[in-house]
Amino acid sequence: MFTGIIEEMGIVKWIKGSSEGARKFRIGCKTVIEDLSIGDSLSVNGVCLTIVERVGNEVDVEAVEETIRKTTIGKLRVGEAVNLERAAAMNSRIGGHLVQGHVDATGKVLSIEKLPLSRMFRFRIPKPLMRYVIPVGSIAIDGVSLTVAEKLSDSLKVAIIPHTYDNTVFKFLHVGNVVNIEVDMMAKYVESLLKK
Question: I need a labelling partner for 102 at 20 to 30 A (CA). Which of 11, 66, 128, 186 fits?
Fold first, then answer.
């Protein structure tokens, strides 16, 4: 379980494995490495992955075929920056919202509008996920806990404050880029309970 508050951006150092099958990634980091152990969960661009090795200031994580198919993890390249967050400790404040790291689907950047104090990003997400989106509700995009500024018929908008822009991979996004989307898990639970 995560909170969607990114702790740092890491750098992909190397990738091993096939383009269709499982892959292993080595990620360089400075902050999250402090108390990570083999077997711990690490959110990489919003995808919950398991630490399988630790070497100095680098960690190795693995992604299996299902993860590669469903997320943007398989599109990562050596030298690329990634959002990193350690699993939440249940004895601390939750600054964002409860994020599982179980990506629902990918979405696409439709527009980026630079405003005087922020940037407004518009994302298209799969239509079946739109039912979980509400104005001023929570959504995780590439692992970042965000508030929905506006819900449109086929997309949503989120305002990115300067701190988030400067300290996450949002500063590298362009129109047309693909991102990981995780809708609010509470909405999915409520829907499941009401179907019974």
Answer: 11
